[in-house]
Design goal:
The chain has 302 residues and is an alpha/beta fold. Helices cover 41% and strands 19% of the residues. The protein has a 7-stranded mixed sheet with strand order 5-4-3-6-7-9-8, with helices on both faces. A two-stranded antiparallel ribbon has the order 1-2. Strand 1 and strand 2 form a beta hairpin. The structure holds S-adenosylmethionine. The site of S-adenosylmethionine has 23 residues, from helix 7, strand 4 and helix 11.
């Protein structure tokens, strides 16, 4: 079988299984099998697949047709222009989560936090905490953008932290990210006490699990059956983790520190209400994603 036939056959099987973006999925699985890029595939349509490659490719096509996400089959996903390893232990990084990085960088830059505004050079180390790091995509993207940042990234899943550590190493930022297994930010309290009782962090950022338990049935099958439950569900209403996280972030952020949270599609009002009930927060703003859904919330610590 040649490349052109393999692609056509793979696309046809995925289309018959009603896989979304079946053309792209067939291409990605063949690229992964042959370890060649898309240009190579389309410039070598008559190149033959050996028997092993053909068997491997159609095995992946069958798994995709049965519902496994392409990213778990290829083991990779791009985020913020960087390639991340992903396994079924971590949420597949989503494009909308890149807005959190944009908003955080914009806030830190515009407010001149630990940056000499005259020269643009970093002044003192910037301290960042991330709750629920998963693949480490947010922590790694921030570490790459902010060479003066020291990041404390937590997750309750030891298996996720293993993946995150490998991603930090892959992108050369292991020395500035501390990965910690704990519930939300609970293990970071000693960092505060070691800084003479002063709240320590300049930025707390999180894309927490936020889907309400009752909404599980409405999730796409790929998500519901393959992505980790720990990464998806945020309690009965989806607001439970936000309430705890906002309380902890209030204790940990320095005065004028910034909180950046990803929001579930229908949770903006609920999260705003939590912040409104706590006098430690001000300047609450919500930004929409490209689909027009309120997606990123920013607040400042008074
Ligand atoms: C929605 S995923 C986000 C992963 C990654 N930051 C991203 O944006 O792609 C949420 C992550 O929070 C972790 N998590 C869930 N409950 C947690 C808790 N109580 N404390 C710390 N991490 C938690 C999950 O294991 C998962 O990795």
């Amino acid at each position: 079988m040649d490349i052109r036939t393999a692609l056509r056959e793979g696309m046809a099987r995925l289309r018959a299984a009603q896989v979304p973006s079946h053309t792209l999925a067939a291409e990605l699985l063949l690229m992964h099998t042959l370890q060649h890029d898309r240009t190579w595939l389309y410039t070598h349509p008559e190149a033959p697949l050996d028997a092993t490659a053909e068997e491997n490719y159609f095995r992946l096509v069958s798994r995709r047709a049965a519902g496994e996400p392409v990213q778990y089959l290829t083991g990779r996903q791009e985020f913020w222009g960087l390639e991340f390893e992903v396994t079924p232990a971590v949420l597949i990084p989503r494009p909308e989560t890149e807005h959190l990085v944009e908003v955080a960088l914009d806030r830190l830059g515009s407010r001149g936090i630990k940056i000499n505004m005259a020269t643009g050079a970093p002044s003192a180390p910037l301290h960042i905490a991330e709750a629920g790091t998963g693949s480490g995509c947010l922590a790694v993207a921030l570490a790459r953008e902010l060479p003066h940042a020291e990041i404390f990234a937590t997750d309750i899943s030891a298996a996720a932290l293993e993946v995150a550590r490998r991603n930090a190493a892959r992108h050369g930022v292991s020395d500035r990210i501390h990965f910690i297994e704990c519930d939300l930010l609970s293990a970071l309290r000693p960092s505060i006490s070691s800084s003479q009782g002063r709240a320590f962090f300049d930025l707390v950022i999180s894309n927490p699990p936020y889907i309400a338990r009752g909404e599980a049935a409405s999730l796409p099958r790929e998500v519901r059956e393959h992505e980790p439950e720990l990464a998806l569900y945020g309690g009965e209403t989806g607001l439970e983790i936000y309430r705890r996280l906002i309380g902890e972030a209030g204790d940990m952020l320095d005065r004028d520190g910034t909180l950046v949270l990803e929001l579930g599609y229908n949770l903006a009002n609920g999260v705003r209400a939590i912040l409104a009930g706590d006098p430690r927060w001000t300047c609450v703003r919500v930004t929409n994603d490209l689909a027009g859904i309120p997606r990123v919330l920013v607040a400042e610590r008074v």
